[in-house]
Predict the structure of ribose-phosphate diphosphokinase.
Amino acid sequence: MQVIPNAKIFSSRGSYALAKRIAEAYGQPLGKVIFTEFSDGEYQPSFEETVRGNRVFLISSTHQPNDNLIELLLMIDAAKRASAKHITAVIPYFGWARQDRKDKPRVPIGAKLMADLITAAGATRIMTMDLHADQIQGFFEIPVDHLYASSLFLPHIQSLHLENLTIASPDMGGSKRANAYAKALGAEVVICYKQRKKANEIEKMTVIGDVRDRNVILVDDMVDTAGTLTKAADMLMEEGARSVMAYCTHPLLSGNAYEKIENSALSKLVVTDTIPLKKPSDKIEVISIAEMFASVMKKVHYHQSISDSFII
């Protein structure tokens, strides 16, 4: 009987806290990797233990700054050149995913470029969560395990025992996600329709559906400046909603997002730890993805089915 060697788990510096939680849930310590920094800002990762013939999990969300992406690429290349047998890039938040198509002339398809870079570096498998667009999986020529935060969010919502529950999407693009949540919870659905002047700036927003006397939950894959989310929450309350909460997988929270959330009608924002929070907030609750990712990583390593991990 063939003995499968233990997998090894390493992390970039930007995702170290999350990687440590995942490794603990997996049942083994994080592998040792050091980063040598040069005076001009260049850096070089070095695995301080052998990875020859092993499956290597490299954990790094690719949120800003760009160092998180570059560190992941360098670690992949180092593992490849050190003769790792399998290199799985664990990317809880896949950055640049909003550039998944040409929406006007003379612009890049950034998500495809990132996929090509990760594949060219030597990754043999990708593991990620709540891609901004499902079709990004097709940008890779290697297997992609696309996990969903709904398997964490749905039980959390059910534990609230909210009456007159309505699920809302903050924009038309999230209508499929909102409908899936509503179907799983036996709730109604409303859609917020927004018109933009430019990126991160909303010109007009209207609600499609009735929210009067309803407890509304907004669902989305990410919250960046929080402009759309907070405007939607305020509008839903103006339309007669009893309360408004939000569940968003990736807490980018850039600019004055924290201030917007604190001053909005949102009673609570529930996020995951795919990206570390810049600071705590009484209105923000974090649910960890560590157990989920550790479970799927272990199943992948031992060649077990992971189909039961895909909900919505």
About this structure: Residues 67-81 form the longest helix (15 residues).
